[in-house]
TrEMBL record:
GO MF annotation, one: NAD(P)HX epimerase activity
Cross-referenced InterPro entries: Carbohydrate_kinase_pred_CS, CARKD, Nnr, Ribokinase-like, YjeF_N_dom, YjeF_N_dom_sf
The organism of origin for this protein: Yoonia algicola
Top-level taxonomic group: Bacteria
Compositional bias annotation for Polar residues: 64-73
Protein name: Bifunctional NAD(P)H-hydrate repair enzyme
Function noted in UniProt: Catalyzes the epimerization of the S- and R-forms of NAD(P)HX, a damaged form of NAD(P)H that is a result of enzymatic or heat-dependent hydration. This is a prerequisite for the S-specific NAD(P)H-hydrate dehydratase to allow the repair of both epimers of NAD(P)HX. Catalyzes the dehydration of the S-form of NAD(P)HX at the expense of ADP, which is converted to AMP. Together with NAD(P)HX epimerase, which catalyzes the epimerization of the S- and R-forms, the enzyme allows the repair of both epimers of NAD(P)HX, a damaged form of NAD(P)H that is a result of enzymatic or heat-dependent hydration.
Cofactor: Mg(2+); K(+)
Residue spans of biased composition, Low complexity class: 51-63
UniProt xrefs under NCBIfam families: yjeF_cterm, yjeF_nterm
Binding residue positions for AMP: K479, G480, P481, D482, T483, G512
PROSITE patterns (alphabetical): YJEF_C_2, YJEF_C_3, YJEF_N
Amino acid sequence: MTELLTAAQMRAIEQAAIASGEVTGLELMERAGRGVVEAIFEEWPELAPGAGVAGGAAPSVQGTSPPEFSGQNEDGAHRAVVLCGPGNNGGDGFVVARLLKEAGWEVEVFLYGDAGKLPPDARVNYQRWGEMGEVLPLTPQAPPELAHRHIVIDAMFGTGLARPLSELGPFLRDICDCVDAGGSLMLQERWPYWPPVVAIDIPSGICADSGRPIFDEAVAERIRRGSSAACAAADLTVTFHAQKLGHALASGGFWCGKIVCADIGISSPASRTLPRSELVKMASDTGSRFKRNGHKYSHGYALILSGSVGKGGAARLAARGALRVGAGAVTLGCPPAAMIENAAQLNAVMLRKIKAADALNVALEDTRINALCVGPGMGTGPREAALLAACLEQTRPGASPGRGVVLDADALTLLAQNEALFAKLHAQCVLTPHAGEFARLFPDIAEKLAAPATKGPAYSKVDATREAAKRAGCVVLFKGPDTVIAAPDAQCSINASVYDRSAPWLATAGSGDVLAGFITGLLARGFAPMNAAESGAWLHTECALSFGPGLIAEDLPEELPKVFRALGV
Ligand SMILES: NC(=O)C1=CN([C@@H]2O[C@H](COP(=O)(O)OP(=O)(O)OC[C@H]3O[C@@H](n4cnc5c(N)ncnc54)[C@H](O)[C@@H]3O)[C@@H](O)[C@H]2O)[C@@H](O)CC1
Ligand SMILES: [K+]
């Protein structure tokens, strides 16, 4: 688990470090540039000094070697294009240009903007580079040649992006084409050779707070015609001190390619990274995370409400998830007609007839039940609305015993349809909407999130989820590859399935039901709602990663023992 920063937080950390006398801005820029060069050599060791001829033999097309390119120029140097912008991101670019030149590279440097307006540290590095080489203007009319170089450095815009890069759109398209073409030194047999792209801090055009490309209608129209892009893409993105929200949210992970976070030596707790086992320790605020002693009911008892005949699969998946994640006992409550179907499918999970709300109230006289899950496959009729109302009543803060409740799927539809029900939400609830459910529950918030991002920082999924949690008065877990979890007090975390945690096979029928079950099971174990949602989402991704492609929802709970073992639980 890593702490992510907004651009403003990063600026504040940088300013505090400079103000304390710990380091100068110029030194930070030098470290940033060095971090980028080190990351390049780490990623492509064949480019590192002393690694020999890049790519070996000259690339050939149908048996002929193009005369212009032999992997190196006539002097045996690697070739880089460094694209600098008008701010400190550009300043980092000038440092990278200088360091590559010192390493023997042939470096072409372009500047987008007016050198006279560069901020002070960037200007110093512009001048330092000026003693080694020239700076050509980066103009959309005569864009730099990118083919047949070894690397392209995108140092145009970083965390300071404020508006669309309309003018640069066609050139950004060229950069995206480089990345689309493979951008790998392993592909030198291809001709023309398109180099890998390395973004400094974040690909230019992406908002560092939201992961969304910033663009206006004019650019959108050109994108539709295929002649423009809103942002650059990268094969490798090197950021500093800590990842930013935009690296994880929305399409940020897609545009960044691979991410490396370079240490620039700022002593701030903000970049703390927790080892995996810490997640479990952190979550064990009840002191009863592990089943070291006690009997089954002392490990929590979850009740999962199920739908009618033929609709019980979702609730059964949730029940299995709750049991595997550690609830001591799980009962599935279903309409009488669905008893036989469920009995034929369940063993460790117990069954109980719950015809209507009064039967639920009787069931909840069992004070051992401390967590509920309402919604998966449940239905949206009057019976279900009454069940939901009873659940909200029985779990309200202050009621005895204390109970948590997960509201998913059909429960979310009911909440969206019924203002009186929505008004009963409280701090013991966890809502787990996907994008469609979120839009039904919070249409105005979803509209803001869907509106084109025309200026930075753009409204983000974090902003949206926080607003939703505040309005609902409970934890909201907004699902997606960038799952965001927020509490009414603005606590927030992201469980992003990106980079080395990418698990696209998690988008499979029933996987959300298992997640609801995991969270319910953790509530039963005594986790607080925010903690249960965060830990459930994290374990859900871990199970998917552990199982790998081919996964179906049934596999997720079954993978938990392996994940727990790997955590040392
Ligand atoms: N904050 C930190 O701790 C560090 C920051 N560093 C670098 O500094 C960067 C941030 O620097 P800045 O705040 O100067 O921001 P940027 O370099 O991202 O760019 C800001 C400049 O671009 C202009 N601008 C914004 N959008 C524009 C657009 N669409 N068209 C034309 N001009 C536009 C702004 O007016 C401003 O002049 C980071 O991304 C990182 O690369 C590093 O040097 C290391 C330390
Ligand atoms: K950049």
